[in-house]
């Protein structure tokens, strides 16, 4: 199929946009929900059940998550396998970042298919008494655990570094200093999301790091708070 320059440009813009909205936003939501595992089995299971009860959830998932991911994935594979290397056009670090963007994208194809197959499309998982325990059981296999680590780091790199590409493609960072700032921001997003993602993975193995100073008293599971004036 031959595309005109305009059509190709529009497709690239749609590819770039879907990477941030909705896929990037979904990744943030996903890491947030998974972090509930730090608060224990009951907290995570309640969060998963809450999501499953969203009205029209099947349609929202299909149109708001699967369709954009399928589009971004298919076009991403085409770009990653046919796009020209841009060696020499940019600095050394930039080239590496761009190469890793493509490599992480290809890794994500395998990871996303594996991960959704093992959870969202697995009837044992969907009907399990405890989603938390089910995932904990899965990652007790070292090979599965290792693949989850690779998948999480790839997704966080791909979104973090992808935000830099997004800022360039949409003209949000044009000057030198603005591009340097965008690059720093992208690496900060990558690091923070990686820590959050890996910590939530460890939480499913009961080994997440959740120090007291990151909690608030009202977040603890306890009975009604009793003040001197009575119950509240
Ligand atoms: C966690 C899921 C994913 C997220 C959050 C995501 C997000 C993004 C973002 C934000 C960008 C930057 C857009 C831009 O440069 O303007 C991007 C670019 C890219 N994505 Fe993804 N993506 C995901 C999955 C995938 C998958 C599965 C592939 C398959 C190969 C892929 C391939 C690519 C490629 C090749 C680019 C660079 C496009 C270019 O050359 O300009 N992505 N992605």
Automatic annotation (TrEMBL):
Transmembrane domains' residue ranges: 65-87, 99-118, 145-173, 185-205
Localization annotation: Membrane
Alphabetical list of Pfam families matching this protein: Sdh_cyt
Keyword set, alphabetical order: Heme, Iron, Membrane, Metal-binding, Transmembrane, Transmembrane helix
Domain of life: Bacteria
Gene Ontology cellular component list: membrane
Primary location group: membrane
GO molecular function: metal ion binding
Keyword Metal-binding: yes
Descriptive protein name: Succinate dehydrogenase
Source organism (scientific name): Eiseniibacteriota bacterium
């Amino acid at each position: 199929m031959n595309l005109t320059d305009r059509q190709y440009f529009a497709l690239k813009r749609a590819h770039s946009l879907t990477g941030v909205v909705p896929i990037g936003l979904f990744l943030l939501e996903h890491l947030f929900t998974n972090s509930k595992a730090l608060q224990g089995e009951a907290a995570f299971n309640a969060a998963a059940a809450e999501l499953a009860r969203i009205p029209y959830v099947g349609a929202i998932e299909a149109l708001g998550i699967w369709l954009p991911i399928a589009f971004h994935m298919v076009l991403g594979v085409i770009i990653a396998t046919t796009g020209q290397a841009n060696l020499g056009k940019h600095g050394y670090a930039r080239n590496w970042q761009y190469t890793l963007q493509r490599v992480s994208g290809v890794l994500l194809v395998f990871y996303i298919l594996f991960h959704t197959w093992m959870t969202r499309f697995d009837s044992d998982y969907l009907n399990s008494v405890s989603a938390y325990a089910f995932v904990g059981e899965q990652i007790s296999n070292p090979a599965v655990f290792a693949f989850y680590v690779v998948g999480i780091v790839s997704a966080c790199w791909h979104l973090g570094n992808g935000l830099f590409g997004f800022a360039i493609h949409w003209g949000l960072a044009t000057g030198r200093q603005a591009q340097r700032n965008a690059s720093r921001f992208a690496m900060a997003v990558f690091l923070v999301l990686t820590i959050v993602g890996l910590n939530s993975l460890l939480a499913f193995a009961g080994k997440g790091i959740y120090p007291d100073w990151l909690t608030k008293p009202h977040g603890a599971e306890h009975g009604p708070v009793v003040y001197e004036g009575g119950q509240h």
